[in-house]
Specification:
single chain, alpha/beta, 9 helices, binds nicotinamide-adenine-dinucleotide, Rossmann fold
């Protein structure tokens, strides 16, 4: 899918070096963002979560001339330490960070939130999907000069209830609040921190959500644009937020979802499958 998208070329990211965390395959949102940033002249480093994903991520990263391709499990302090040390050794500094990481147990992404959210699932989901951004932002900020920028990926399930999204919605609420506190702390250093709230995109992570097909068709029918969310729009928003175009914008959750988030009551047609 991503190969078909022609990302606008230019020089908005020329001279900027950034770390992309969260590519699993060519459908990953982080990969669309990486392609757009590369098309605008950025030099990129990538992390992959584990050995099994390396064989998918490495060729993609190489196709955009990645300077670094590093294993990094965000649940493992030593792995995070090593990844950011590798960036420091290679570049000494960092201009931007893309965080597109989330995970929960499949059993938590179906049915009842109250019945299916165990203590362990709650902790693990928060750890991977919210704390990892705080941790990565902290480490990245030590390598950033004024003008640095970070972006994370969130979803409307943080603000409204969405069937089966359950504990992940709670983690996304924590992620968005974390983003605002990070923006407050890092603002005086000239570092901007924002989130993109993306509409549904067909990725590995989305495949884990029960009744995903309904989610896609309802979003399409009920959104003001009557369309799916286009990965190009998400990548474009990331380009804006991470480049100097986004100057003065920090602490913002920017929705890129065909306008679905503004709908209080959908048209009648949207309710007929
Ligand atoms: P994806 O499956 O391609 O990406 C999720 C990434 O998280 C993978 O690269 C995976 O390796 C990584 N990850 C999970 N556990 C990890 C760990 N312990 N250490 C390191 N990495 C780990 O799916 P995606 O949809 O591109 O997801 C990227 C982000 O976008 C997520 O935060 C997701 O919640 C968010 N998002 C997705 C959608 C959607 O519809 N796909 C919508 C809004 C927001």
């Amino acid at each position: 899918m991503s190969e078909e998208i022609a990302f606008p070329k230019g020089e908005l990211m020329k001279g900027k070096r950034g770390l992309i965390m969260g590519v699993a395959n060519k459908n990953s949102i982080a990969w669309h963002i990486a392609r757009q940033l590369h098309a605008q002249g950025a030099t990129l480093a990538f992390t992959y979560a584990n050995e099994a994903l390396e064989r998918r991520v490495r060729p993609l990263a190489q196709s955009v001339d990645a300077a670094l391709i590093i294993e990094c499990d965000v649940l493992d302090d030593a792995s995070m330490e090593a990844a950011f040390a590798a960036v420091k050794d290679a570049w000494g500094e960092l201009d931007f960070l893309v965080h597109a990481i989330a995970f929960t147990d499949k059993t938590a992404l179906e049915g009842s939130f109250v019945e299916n959210t165990t203590r362990q699932i709650f902790r693990d989901t928060m750890d991977v999907s919210a704390f990892s951004f705080v941790d990565a932002a902290n480490r990245a900020s030590h390598l950033m000069k004024p003008g640095g920028a970070m972006v994370t990926l969130t979803y409307l399930g943080s603000e409204r209830t969405i069937p089966n999204y359950n504990v992940m919605g709670v983690a996304k609420a924590a992620l968005e609040a974390s983003m605002r506190y990070l923006a407050r702390d890092l603002g005086p250093k000239g570092i901007r921190v924002n989130a993109i709230s993306a509409g549904p995109i067909r990725t590995l992570a989305a495949a884990g959500i029960s009744s995903g097909r309904h989610m896609f068709s309802f979003n399409r029918k009920a959104s003001p644009l009557r369309d799916d969310t286009d990965p190009k729009g998400i990548a474009g928003a990331a380009l804006y937020l991470l480049s100097d175009l986004g100057a003065s914008c920090t602490g913002e959750t920017h929705h890129v979802d065909a306008g679905f988030h503004i709908v209080g009551m959908p048209e009648e047609a949207a309710l007929k499958e």
